Amino acid sequence: MADTENTIVVRANVAMTTAALQAIVENAKKMAGPDESGFYRVDTADKVGEMISRFLLEKDFETYVMNIENYRS
Question: How far is CA 20 from CA 66, 69, 70, in A?
């Protein structure tokens, strides 16, 4: 993953499929597992942000936004 030392947090509205959101929630719950009461203690909203951030860093979003051709409709 890219160097996260030079990153900032940006709050934005992001369009994604319901299937992607369902996958994040289901997989986050699987990774966390239930506690002794059977509840899943995972902040799925934070996990959505984490997954989007990792994707942007790993897939080189910085290079994508530097290319002026990507701004054309």
Answer: 27, 27, 24
